[in-house]
Design a protein that fits this description.
- This protein is mainly beta and 127 residues long.
- It is 0% helix and 50% strand.
- The protein is built from no helices and eleven strands.
- Strands 2, 4, 5, 6, 9, 10 and 11 form a seven-stranded mixed β-sheet that branches. A four-stranded antiparallel β-sheet has the order 1-3-8-7, with no helix packed on it.
- The chain starts with a strand and ends with a strand.
Length: 127
């Protein structure tokens, strides 16, 4: 059974930091790109970041560039999203995923590219 489980969400003040982690099981971890998505109140779901299967390429949404960093640890089948200088507008449910591609244009990731999807973790940045 393919499974993705997020952890690390929570409540922080604006300007603070959080690290999200995702453990993926049931598939060959090092054969997939990994990604993070989010859905805020009244906002469509959006791709936040992805990292290629070999870790050589990363991509970020414009709104998080310079603040968020994605990484992966193939030995532990986990990937992380380090979020610094959080803003109120980063408040959302964050979902991790195993994906079949990591394009520089994140908008090209579609549901057809999802191999695993987490249950979501709440991130709230308060003013």
């Amino acid at each position: 059974q393919v499974k993705a489980v997020e952890s690390g969400g929570g409540l922080v003040q604006a300007g603070g930091s959080l690290t999200l982690s995702c453990t993926v099981s049931g598939l060959r971890f090092d054969g997939y790109a990994m990604g993070w998505f989010r859905q805020g109140p009244g906002i469509p779901r959006e791709a936040v970041s992805c990292i290629s299967w070999d870790g050589a390429r990363t991509a970020y949404a414009e709104s998080v560039k310079g603040r968020f960093t994605i990484s992966r640890d193939d030995a532990r089948s986990t990937h992380q999203l380090q979020m610094n200088n959080l803003k109120v507008e980063d408040t959302a449910i964050y979902y991790c995923a195993a994906i079949t591609l990591c394009p520089y244009g994140l908008r090209y990731i579609t549901p057809d590219h999802l191999a695993a999807w987490g249950q979501g973790t709440q991130v709230t940045a308060s003013s």
